[in-house]
Specification:
369 residues; two-stranded antiparallel ribbon; 11 strands
Length: 369
Amino acid sequence: MGKVVCPWELITNFVTDAFIGYGIPEEDAKICTDILLESDRRGIESHGCNRFKPIYLDRIKAGIQSPVTNFEIVKETPTTAVIDGHNGMGQVIGYKSMQMAIDKAKQYGMGMVAVRNSCHYGIAGYYTTMATKQGCIGMTGTNARPSVAPTFGVDGMFGTNPLTIGIPTDEDFDFNIDCATSITQNGKIEYYERIGEDVHPGTIIGRDGKPIEGDSGEALKKIRNGQAALATLGGIGEELGGYKGYGYAMVIELLSAVLQDGSYGKDLNGKDENGNIRPYHLGHFFIAIDTNHFLGEELTRKKAGEIIRSVRNSTKAPGCDRIYTAGEKEWDIWQERKDSGVPINESVQKEILEVRDELGLTQYKFPWE
């Protein structure tokens, strides 16, 4: 679909300079860039360059996200903290909060940080990887703009609410499960619209309780105007366990709001009572567990590696030659892409050129020009 591979150094330098051009301090811009491109390194293109302009730059320009992050510690104990992000860069808030949780865990065994008034923080698995690299088990979750319906409902009452957990292993990649509690997420549908792919059947429910199918762009409009909603993991109704996805989604919604007195549900739709756009006021939580406070990092990594290898080595289904564990496919994609670059589709190519020309970053020339 017209994708062109852009070298890592080129796209990294450009995105960083563009963030700086939009008023983000240099060190913060480097954090935002690293988290953004980590999505593309792992093959999760819905959260990488695909969201560079519409989710971050456009929101800064619209005045609903601050390029300068005021990271306020509202309350702190040796093992916990409550943070107010004051609608700054979600990646910066997430990075600092996860590192704070890790630091607390290193000293006391466990640490947890709850955040309010943040913005989209990018790929959740980045933060759990921060933990596993430092010998900790990491957990994070975030609420999001309401677009997912509860079981037996049709209103978008909560977000795609990812539940993300990382556990250190002795392999080249750590175990890292990073997925929404809905079947699909808004970013995926945005990405499908960009590449001309239809909605996947059974992932979206209409006001009549029936699945929405067909054009992804039209489906996205219906979700935005309240005429449709995403389905939770397990799908529409109870037959395939949709209530389980609903329950886990509510756990994330609660942990992203109750400990920090944060916003929730339809208050996260980015609009005031008059329909004017406003900050999203998202909430997150970050948990770190230091393995050295139990039986040690080395033993933890070895045991975790043994467990996931036993699963991967179990009997394969007919026609299947490989069983994966979480984090493995992303590692494989990185091995394929690390010496080449990030594949960028046509619509994002145009956005990158628009940003370059707007900011006068004429030193950058891209492969698709």
